[in-house]
Amino acid sequence: MSAASSAAPDAPATGAIPELFHGLFDDAAVFPPGNLPVAEAVPAHRGHRAAWYSEAVGPLLCGAGRLGELAAAVAGGAAVTSTGAPASGGVAMAGGAPLRVGLVLPGGSAELGPALAAAAPFEVAGVELAVRDAAEAVAALDRLLPPDVPAAIELPRELLRGDGLGEVLDVLIDSPYRAKFRTGGVVAEAFPNEEELAAFLTGCALRGLPYKCTAGLHNAVRHTDPATGFEHHGFLNVLLAAQETDRAAAAAVLAERDGAVLAKAVQALTDRQVTVIRNSFTAFGTCSIAEPLDDLAALGLLPSTSQPQEDR
């Protein structure tokens, strides 16, 4: 995925984004497979936040180990691209709002305190904590996280199978924190099948537990990637499955590969259903903001853009 695909073309005025997609796309440009340099990701994110589709865009996600780079990019004024050309948008914070950042902490609770301190120049929009012990994570977040900062707890998928899934989700029920589930990666094994993902979604739905997802979801419809052969879930599939409490029904929605069928189901959603869905499925990380928007436009769920799509 190229840097050119990190920004969508100009199009309709603000207000064109349906409620179903508000804040759905967390900007994970610096993570694989996009791997956009931090100095380019900051101005690109500023551009997203100023664009007509800004209502769909969540915070810029940054790993704990790259917060120094992020601070340098913001403090350094105008950035340059990998070719040496000036990057558009600039990164200076003077006169503007602090950059909204979601902290991604793959190293567990030990990273939490130092990361929060390093993130002081930014507006911390959330924390995503990867751990092996849900109770330990809840205790660490209770102790260190400011009360106005939301958090999501990610556990390894092998701990979320069988009886382990219910045990983990039960720990989170009485906490203010979301669950987080990994829906893809850079190897085939990182992609859960429909039944595994359905078990997670319905387990959360039955408990009234919100969650976010990450990786492999930047396209709207379930598909097989022609280059890698990986089986990708579609974010529209996940949105529609989020209202299901029956595992078989959720798995059937996740397996649907006809975009027209999914688009029709989305258009038929009531306001109440949209609220239920987004109270459950709160966001997902995507290394491209343009690709999900392009998919939605192609399905008739967003206004079409007229400019050519570069270097897709």
Description of the structure:
This protein has 312 residues and is an alpha/beta fold. 35% of the residues lie in helices and 15% in strands. The protein has an eight-stranded parallel barrel, surrounded by six helices. Strands 8-9 form a two-stranded antiparallel ribbon. The longest helix has 14 residues, at 194-207. It is globular.
**Would you report the number of β strands?**
10
Major beta sheet, strand line-up: 1-2-3-4-5-6-7-10
Q: Spell out the helices and strands N to C.
A: EHEHEHEHEHEHEEEHHHHEH
Distance between the termini: 7 Å
Which key phrases capture this entry?
312 residues; alpha/beta; eight-stranded parallel β-barrel; two-stranded antiparallel ribbon; disordered N terminus
Describe the structure in brief.
The protein is an alpha/beta fold and 312 residues long. It has helices at 38-50, 67-75, 112-118, 134-144, 163-173, 194-207, 235-241, 247-255, 259-267, 271-280, 290-298, and strands at 25-27, 57-63, 100-105, 123-130, 151-154, 178-182, 211-214, 223-224, 231-232, 281-286. The chain has eleven helices and ten strands.
